[in-house]
Specification:
Structural class: alpha+beta
Largest sheet: 3 strands, antiparallel
Number of helices: 3
Strand order of the largest sheet: 3-2-5
Helix content: 40-55%
Radius of gyration: 16 Å
Mean pLDDT: 78
Low-confidence stretches: none
Shape: flat
Order of helices and strands: EEEEHHEH
Length: about 100
């Protein structure tokens, strides 16, 4: 699996000041293993260009979404960090998959 970067964050509603700025979900784009690096870079560049468009930003905002641009490495760090954070949270709360 190779990563391109397309992050759309939906922010959590504030509840007594908790999670006021923490994203509760993101949407990203992945591609298959073996995709040539130049193709990944082109997709990433075009996605980043589109996500900077003021009209698109406004449409996302109407749905409570906030686009973020970056690189495939940025996206990998987001996935890794979220996986680590939510794994730790689930363990601390003794949440298991049944």
């Amino acid at each position: 699996m190779y990563l391109t970067c397309c992050l759309l964050y939906r922010k959590a509603a504030s509840y007594r000041g908790i999670l006021a700025s923490a994203p509760i979900q993101w949407i990203g784009l992945l591609t298959t293993a073996g995709t040539p690096q130049d193709v990944i870079e082109r997709i990433n560049a075009e996605l980043n260009r589109a996500l900077r468009d003021p009209d698109l930003i406004a449409k996302f905002a109407q749905q409570g979404l906030s686009p973020a641009v970056g690189t495939p490495a940025d996206f990998q760090r987001t996935i890794t960090s979220d996986l680590e954070n939510w794994t730790e949270t689930a363990r601390a709360a003794n949440i298991t998959a049944d």
